């Protein structure tokens, strides 16, 4: 085994946590760990650091922690099959590893969100796009399942497709959920009794604006984060009155939550793709910055009986959970560095890079330097309503070690730069100016001597895959010499018609309508219609169980490529969904990408 192979094996076995949940009593943290098995398994550890993490599942699939019951012993976990996103829910006792008790049907013919148990553990609440006859429908209805009789009952029936996880209040009498029935770009908050009574709209910032809300853990106050015309603001809804605590365009709130046993709101401010946590008084609105430990980005999760538990991450710091003592000392709850032979010096640090788009807008990205670069790869994040942070990315680190500089751009439409930047992608819709932002980053690298024409490639998953298709069909070979789109949309009409129904409103929001109302835009922004312009090398990567960007996208574009006589390769994974997740498959993919870009740049 050579050094590069050994490095990849170490990267793929690096524990990568996700979906963390702190128990209501503050004594336990549960999460799912990728990298230690073929799938993702649920682990639990005491928040006081008194014992090592305990593995609770071993299924070979991605098993994710969904929620804690109020007893702080029972977990609701969700699991799909090979990335098909059709989740089954289970109850899991943290004292009985591997004893998964089914809560919903196996191999469901619908998509499910959420999963909350009532305080007496007798009832499960969730959202699913299925009707009383068991038929899959477009909209997600809110359901309650009696776990004694195993019968499910509808709580409320939203009319239009939407994606939401219902939230149960502290005494189990009311549920918060969202609807998107006024406008595809909007989101309103509704409240309904857990028995289905009193269903009503509670919070509405405007037909095309978004509201997010969550219960305070111990009473019926509601924390609200609402879009305005220019920024997000934070408030508290109590006794029928909504009172704003932070309404400041200069304070870039990304999200907020109230942990159990906390007398403070945790508000996350994200500016220029860097996040910072604040503790906010829910009465006065006074805020104080979270005192970080100085290593990477640190986000407090919840107070405990011996301080706080927080998540820490950075480009040279694998994501980890730490106990923050009353004196500010920090200690890992997972003993992360003992679980890997890698050290901080083995990772390339992220460099903050800025450039100007053709219209003058400043764009930010992260640049990673190879020691002896043989080319440059642009790795585009998905979403597009997301952003890349100074965070360790296994794919980026492997590409850098293999000899490629990497640019990770935060194009317009990304979060992390304020509301106006996020919404600016809608001015000319998907496939417009945000693609120019990415290419402008490439040209900036060339001008700075950080990239060489003819030795620049692009890849990414989901919207990153779509961006890869846009780049290879629009740019000359000296700008983009190779593209490896992963699970990327090719024909936006095919994508709209075959994707999950709850995702269609997002396409309507980002393209200004449906294929029926904006047919020319859907055609103009579909790379499939322009494959005859491709000059560079092309590798198509697809998970064949992907319900989001379905394999129909690949079948459609391959027919167009064959008709145009464009050479291309396909790397398909029969046991993957929206993204390549399994370590064995990732090893195949990452090695293939290195060979693909190296060969393309050598031509």
Brief summary of the model shown:
Helix content is 17%, strand content 36%.
Summarize this structure as a short list of keywords or feature phrases:
single chain; 603 residues; alpha+beta; Rossmann fold; four-stranded antiparallel beta sheet; 17% helix
Report on this structure.
The chain is α+β, with helices and mostly antiparallel strands and 603 residues long. It has a domain at 348-602: Alpha/Beta hydrolase fold, catalytic domain (Rossmann fold). It contains 10 helices and 36 strands. α1 runs antiparallel to α2. The radius of gyration is 24 Å and the shape is globular. The model has no long low-confidence stretch (mean pLDDT 96).
The proportion of strand residues reads 35-45%
Name the overall outline.
Answer: globular
Structural class: alpha+beta
Number of strands: 36
CATH topology of the domain at 348-602: Rossmann fold
What fraction, in percent, of the residue positions are helical?
10-25%
Main sheet properties: 8 strands, mixed
H/I helix tally: 10
Give the name of the CATH architecture of the domain at 348-602: 3-Layer(aba) Sandwich
- Under CATH at level 1, the class of the domain at 348-602 stands as Alpha Beta
Give the end-to-end Cα distance, rounded to a whole number of Å.
Answer: 28 Å
Over all CA atoms, what is the radius of gyration?
A: 24 Å
Query: Can you identify the CATH superfamily of the domain at 348-602?
Result: Alpha/Beta hydrolase fold, catalytic domain
